[in-house]
Design goal:
By secondary structure, the chain is mainly α. It is 73% helix and 0% strand. The longest helix is centred in the middle third of the chain and has 36 residues. It comes from Cherax quadricarinatus.
């Protein structure tokens, strides 16, 4: 089934993503991405566990359709946690806010988890490039993963942090 799926995706790539003289490059790229997402979803639907085919098709289409909204809401959750961390300005609360931001973002589905992963990795990369400690970055990433995987952010909550957070 994996070979069949790869073949279907390859054929879709060639038929939809081949550049054409009458299409603008941006529209071609957008059509290509949408087509590949649709084909990949369809392939995963057809090769998935036994379930009525129509239900699998409907659920895959819903997931593709809802992903951008989940990314947006997950990004909002990460921004809120960052703003709360800046507002609290509380020594030792960094890991708590990392964990909480990822936890809240992941509650918004696969798109929220994706947003949390991208934002967390980008943040740690910028910290590393600015010369902040690698061990601190590793501890931040541990807190990020903990929250993103559904762990209780209060594990990292420092004593005395106001209840507001």
């Amino acid at each position: 089934t994996c070979v069949t799926g790869a073949l279907i995706i390859t054929l879709a790539w060639r038929s939809v993503c081949t550049p054409s003289l009458h299409r603008s490059t941006d529209i071609s790229k957008m059509r290509c991405v949408i087509a590949l997402l649709a084909v990949a979803s369809l392939v995963s639907v057809v090769t998935a566990e036994p379930e009525p085919l129509w239900d699998r098709v409907r659920n895959a289409a819903r997931n593709v359709w809802e992903f951008p909204g989940e990314v947006r809401r997950g990004t909002g959750a990460m921004i809120k946690a960052y703003k709360d961390m800046r507002e609290a300005n509380y020594i030792g609360a960094d890991k708590y806010f990392h964990s909480r931001g990822n936890y809240d973002a992941a509650k918004h589905g696969a798109g929220g988890r994706f947003a949390a992963t991208v934002i967390s990795n980008a943040r740690e990369l910028t910290d590393t490039l600015r010369g902040k400690g690698g061990s601190d970055s590793a501890r931040d990433q541990e807190a990020n993963r903990w929250g993103r995987n559904g762990g209780d952010p209060n594990r990292y909550r420092p004593r005395g942090l106001p209840e507001k957070y």
